[in-house]
User: Which sequence fits this backbone?
């Protein structure tokens, strides 16, 4: 039959199959990676029930107890090398499995995660009345509350129906007070410290001279006087903060661990709490949203492994925007010259190849260049010219890594992307439009400015999108030019001049590296790594979506004629 | 600037300088709408003199052209593809300068002044010469901004002047009635014929002296073509028009004089009626009668 003839197949058609396979494999990898990150990143915030596990008789006890409580995080086969011959020979495969348990209470147990052989587990229950408390230090606590001990000596038993309400009230109170303390310490005291540091540098600078002229002597006296004034302003604030801190310890919670130990902790140590085994879906969604929000807007605690990622998120956004501000004019101007003005020939071709190759240079090389050129050369010279006092005292201002230098380094790294896409966009502007403009008596520059550049704006933005996507996720060069694991202050704040381009900053990419590979308990930090990765990816998506929206708007505006 | 020099008196001297064409004072009407030209106008308003043009050192595309194009008349360039008619047209406002490696010999004079005068800025030359292209090329801007583009680049900002120019130019291009209510819409919202008329409006916004048209109707349907041809008749009163066309009927309909080019040479240049009805050269006759080309 006509249709079934195998020989009639057009030559080469079978290779179409390969192309579809290539696309399918690529899509599968991308979807798989994104799905993995999204699933794990979102799961971090979802409240999970807390299991109470009873161990079989004869199994190794946990802190002398056969009962242990925690969130079952995963079940996996035990490494063969760690199996005993009996376990290997055992007919039940469960014996060769182990469960990972998030037990919390790191200050008591020493580690947040504990493994149990699945074969040792007698029973798993989800008891009501378990309280999951997020604390300022030592991670979460999973406890059975016994009673609240208030300052006035009253004691509210956990069995009292008023207990959950009273507990929540006190939590609100301590959180409010903590925010007030932060306002005093970071805001008011921060401002004083900022000025104090400046004055102390002045003092050190003056004292460094063995003999002082009368004018210098007067200067020194005045500086010391101002330091004393600041000190006087500081003391009541510090006293106020201290008093508030003490009040954080007014109320205490008495609780029992699954192992039977009883403990007492000040309510001021607690940040947030929920009852993991008594939640309906709405409670869980509420807890999920609360946890997610806190993650985005809170400052990190405990070497970044707890709390939020706000400074990293903020630093990444500031750095990426600064980079975009720097890279766009650079790249566009270079591309205009290359495409519109330079005489096309071997030299321009060589420049173009060099620009393209620049995109393939390892990013750490850009980091080293940024360190040498921006930080040491430019920053050093700025310091020598504008901050000679600091240079003499060995306190660099711009001569050390900072968000400005990091942005410029990344701008340098991503400028080829912008140049290439701008050049393509310029080349795509029709000759008809250019000639029409020239025939109207426009100069070449006017033609470019009024018609060619607006028409190529969508293409330029495409380049910027690619540059931002690359720049926002880059870590290696940043380590050399200003990123830190924990920055004391944001690059933008309320202290004059409000934007502090010389400050070191935190970055989501570096945060991931720091959490995943530099933290003492990488197992405990893993959920945070996933969540931070998800935020970084979402941030890049959001930045790109913004650029894409602008681009589509421009495309509609400058849509080419239909024929 | 040279172009702003006062127009010389049309003298007998101008007539004697005429080398190629033979401007006849009493012309036979080939087209009923044509009027007898004003004797005060120059017959050699654009003078092409011993003009040779090369795309690079060796590829010569125009060979020793000599012709005079009269003021405020329509002159049509016809000829088969590649004969050099567009190249000559685009030399009049020096658009060919944009191409790398071009070279010319001889001269083109407008109103007696060389367009290659080293003291003449090419931009000021182009400001005095409007050009309409084969493919309509509206800018990705509003209709209003399209029309006043030449004023914008000249730095003119007065709102009333711009508004007046838009109305005058669009009326001049017979487009005002169709677009007056949507001047700030995108130019791309117009139809093909309207776009081409918009380009004509843009070309005349700056009150140029010369209007160059490079096959302005080749992408248009017969109705739009008819409108543009009508427009050319009206514009003739104010502008010197040079039109390149592949359409013999169009050349006969709109032009006062016709130049036939072949292989980079000017074969015949005369009154349109004479070129079409009684050509001196057998090649011309073969072309206009459709036997080759």
Assistant:
């Amino acid at each position: 039959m006509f249709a079934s003839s195998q020989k009639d197949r057009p030559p080469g058609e079978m290779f179409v199959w390969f192309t579809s396979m290539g696309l399918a494999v690529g899509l599968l990898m991308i979807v798989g990676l994104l799905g993995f990150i999204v699933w794990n990143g979102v799961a971090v915030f979802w409240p999970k029930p807390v299991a109470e596990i009873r161990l079989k008789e004869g199994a190794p006890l946990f802190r002398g107890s056969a009962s242990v409580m925690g969130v079952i995080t995963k079940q996996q086969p035990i490494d063969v090398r760690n199996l005993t011959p009996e376990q290997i020979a055992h007919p039940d495969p469960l014996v060769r499995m182990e469960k990972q348990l998030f037990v919390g209470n790191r200050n008591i147990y020493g580690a947040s995660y504990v493994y149990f052989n699945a074969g040792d587990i007698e029973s798993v229950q989800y008891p009501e009345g378990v309280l999951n408390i997020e604390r300022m230090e030592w991670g979460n606590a999973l406890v059975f509350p016994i009673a609240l001990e208030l300052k006035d000596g009253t004691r509210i038993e956990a069995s009292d129906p008023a207990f959950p309400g009273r507990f929540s009230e006190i939590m609100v109170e301590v959180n409010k007070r903590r925010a007030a303390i932060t306002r005093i310490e970071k805001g008011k005291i921060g401002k004083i410290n900022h000025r104090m540091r400046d004055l102390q540098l002045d003092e050190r600078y003056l004292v460094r001279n063995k003999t002082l002229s009368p004018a210098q002597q007067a200067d020194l006296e005045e500086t010391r006087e101002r330091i004393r004034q600041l000190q006087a302003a500081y003391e009541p604030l510090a006293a106020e903060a201290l008093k508030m801190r003490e009040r954080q310890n007014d109320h205490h919670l008495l609780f029992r661990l699954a192992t039977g130990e009883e403990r007492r902790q000040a309510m001021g140590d607690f940040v947030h709490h929920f009852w993991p085994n008594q939640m309906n879906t709405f409670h869980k969604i509420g807890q999920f949203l609360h946890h997610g929000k806190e993650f985005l807007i809170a400052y990190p605690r405990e070497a970044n492994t707890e709390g939020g990622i706000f400074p990293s998120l903020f630093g990444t956004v500031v750095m990426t925007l600064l980079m975009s501000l720097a890279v766009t004019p650079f790249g566009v101007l270079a591309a205009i010259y290359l495409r519109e003005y330079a005489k096309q020939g071997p030299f321009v071709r060589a420049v173009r190849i060099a620009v393209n190759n620049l995109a393939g240079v390892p990013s750490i090389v850009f980091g080293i260049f940024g360190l040498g050129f921006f930080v040491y050369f430019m920053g050093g010279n700025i310091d020598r010219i504008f901050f000679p006092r600091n240079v003499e005292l060995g306190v660099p201002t711009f001569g050390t890594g900072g968000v400005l230098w990091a942005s410029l380094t990344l701008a340098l790294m991503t400028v080829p992307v912008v140049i290439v896409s701008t050049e393509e966009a310029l080349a795509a502007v029709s000759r008809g439009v250019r000639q029409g403009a020239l025939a109207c008596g426009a100069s070449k520059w006017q033609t470019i400015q009024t018609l060619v550049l607006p028409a190529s704006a969508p293409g330029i933005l495409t380049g910027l999108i690619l540059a931002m996507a690359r720049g926002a996720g880059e870590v290696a060069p940043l380590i050399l030019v200003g990123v830190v694991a924990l920055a004391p202050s944001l690059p933008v704040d309320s202290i004059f001049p409000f934007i502090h381009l010389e400050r070191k900053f935190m970055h989501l990419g570096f945060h991931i590296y720091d959490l995943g590979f530099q933290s003492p308990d990488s197992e405990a930090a893993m959920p945070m790594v996933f969540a931070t990765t998800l935020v970084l990816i979402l941030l890049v998506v959001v930045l790109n979506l913004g650029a894409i929206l602008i681009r589509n708007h421009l495309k509609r505006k400058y849509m080419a004629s239909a024929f | 600037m040279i172009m702003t020099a006062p127009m010389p008196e049309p003298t007998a001297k101008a007539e004697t300088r005429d080398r190629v064409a033979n401007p006849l004072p009493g012309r036979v009407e080939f087209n009923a709408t044509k009027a007898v030209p004003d004797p005060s106008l120059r017959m050699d308003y654009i003078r092409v003199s011993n003009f040779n043009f090369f795309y690079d050192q060796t590829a010569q595309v125009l060979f020793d052209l000599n012709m005079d194009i009269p003021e405020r008349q329509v002159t049509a360039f016809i000829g088969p593809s590649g004969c050099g008619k567009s190249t000559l047209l685009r030399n009049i406002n020096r658009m060919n300068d944009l191409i790398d490696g071009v070279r010319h010999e001889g001269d083109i004079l407008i109103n007696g002044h060389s367009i290659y005068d080293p003291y003449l800025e090419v931009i000021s030359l182009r400001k005095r010469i409007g050009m309409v292209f084969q493919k309509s090329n509206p800018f990705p801007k509003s209709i209003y901004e399209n029309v006043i583009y030449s004023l914008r680049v000249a730095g003119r900002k007065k709102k009333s002047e711009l508004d007046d120019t838009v109305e005058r130019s669009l009326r001049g291009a017979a487009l005002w009635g169709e677009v007056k209510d949507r001047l700030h819409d995108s130019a791309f919202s117009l139809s093909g014929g309207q776009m081409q008329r918009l380009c004509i409006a843009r070309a005349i916004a700056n009150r140029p002296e010369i209007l160059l048209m490079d096959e302005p109707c080749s992408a248009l349907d017969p109705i739009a073509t008819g409108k543009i041809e009508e427009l050319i008749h009206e514009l003739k009163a104010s502008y010197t028009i040079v039109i390149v066309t592949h359409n013999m009927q169009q050349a006969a309909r709109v032009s006062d004089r016709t130049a036939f080019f072949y292989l980079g040479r000017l074969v015949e240049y005369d009154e349109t009626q004479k070129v079409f009805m009684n050509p001196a050269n057998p090649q011309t006759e073969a072309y206009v009668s459709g036997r080759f080309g």
